[in-house]
Amino acid sequence: MRSHGSSLEALNRWVDDVARLTEPAAIHWCDGSDAEYAELVTTMLASGDLLPLNAEKHPRSYLHRSHPSDVARVEHLTFVCTPEEEDAGPNNHWMAPAEAHAKIDALFAGAMRGRTMYVIPYCMGPIDSPIARCGVEITDSPYVVANMRIMTRMGQPALARIERDGSFVKGLHSTGDLDPERRFIMHFPEELSIKSIGSGYGGNALLGKKCHALRIASHQARREGWLAEHMLIVGIENRQGEKHYIAAAFPSACGKTNLAMLIPTEGYRKAGWKVWTVGDDICWMTPGEDGRLWAINPEAGYFGVAPGTSAKTNPSALTTLGQDAIFTNVAVTADNAAWWEGLGEGEPVIDWQGRPYDPANGPAAHPNARFTVSAKQCPSWAPESEAPTGVPISAIVFGGRRPSLVPLVFEAKDWAHGVLVGAAMGSETTAAATGAVGVLRRDSMAMKPFCGYNFADYFAHWLSFDKPGARLPRIFHVNWFRKDRDGQFMWPGYGDNLRVLDWMIQRVTGSAKGVDTPIGILPAKHELNLDGLDISPGVVDELLRVDVEGWQEELSAIALYLDGFGTRMPEKLKAERLKVSKALDAAVIRPKASVA
């Protein structure tokens, strides 16, 4: 039974085709209304898909428990299906489109029998923004519908824009039977379509998120001349009331949300500094008429990692979670409040799988437990998040988990060097994806799991923005995760990271000179504001030290990594790596030049 349809015939035809394939008991076109959401919640409470939480501590908030085999992104089951394998690149798992459609459609056949098929029109970005793009996700999961309502501009306004534009990204999803052997996430960039089956987990099932906003959008962006990136967007307002917007790319679970919601230290607050949150995960940037890159956050909510979130690490996130949130795979306390490792208060009594908590079974909350909540509930939410034009980006920051070698901060010498810095970025793996944790891997621009085409072509696309008239952002690299010999973090992080952003803004405005080193420009002595920080000068010196021999080894590893992408790798990027390598060789001859 269809609740209603669209004036766009192509959309109606696709919905009918999917219904014939999946055989649902009913079809519901989502309008995004409060009444619809309330009905979804009632349905899920009745089925056990949602569990109510303590109404005083978590008003209108709920817990969802995934199947234990379905708790993270599954990169080995995620495919980019282009006609030519080379177009997908070594950075993606590839399958020929015809083979992929046949394989996954066989699993979709009859997959929605006895279920309601939901049609979700959504917009990634402000409805009226020229940077925004739309999609439609078809799913049999009410949990997905509820999350998509929080994470996107979903429902009637989005459908109206789709009908005006006449185009949309097609996303088909079913939880199927949740069998890991019958689980695939297929992307068809040339067709602007996605098919996902066998998982209910966010990154695999909320198709507006990583699947559309990064894998498909990166393909669109290359074709149309913009960038779809795995980046937070944060606004920094200094004591003069000037705002600078910074986009930062970190791999999952490496502190994007914490930086996006950064709370200034007392000294900075008293001096009048403010931080504004535009986005915590995804950034779409396009060149403006003024030559600058203008960015929107295509999402409307946060799908954040809960473990480690506390009043100390991210008080803004806890405030944001005060109401109307969906928690996934967290534990609960005796009074039925959400709990996770690192929260710092309360004790778990029921673990994320619904069992009485026993430390012998592992953590109480899954390490990749999540929260979904509207961005507008964040106390530092930036009203500019709704601006159709987006915000101008002053600086782009790359960074990952590196326990050694990489300094606290350095600036690329120019755009091409910055692209190399982003391309060479490495990080220790986290629990956000299946597989071993703590292994160093290259994660270029934090896009290793998300770029919808060959990385070599992606790097070339980044390089193409450096053209006459462009006023491009400065590019920096940070490393909050340096450890000392005892395995302790050397930099306090969190609110104190604003000290590093302060220096970046000084570099952007020309008020900090920095010091030139073979790997980039580092803060000169006394340029980094350390007032009120309990850290010894020796630690700061170590955080900013350039280990020339170590970097020579790093550059050799980077060369092997870039060569792995074959003949499409831009010669300009190889030349840039060689330039840095020669500067390091010269620094060995003159050791003092290697130390910041």
From TrEMBL:
Reactions catalysed: oxaloacetate + GTP = phosphoenolpyruvate + GDP + CO2
Residues annotated as binding Mn(2+): 210, 230, 281
Enzyme class: lyase
Cofactor binding comment, as recorded: Binds 1 Mn(2+) ion per subunit.
UniProt-recorded name of the protein: Phosphoenolpyruvate carboxykinase [GTP]
Necessary cofactors: Mn(2+)
Quaternary assembly: Monomer.
Source species of the chain: Luteibacter jiangsuensis
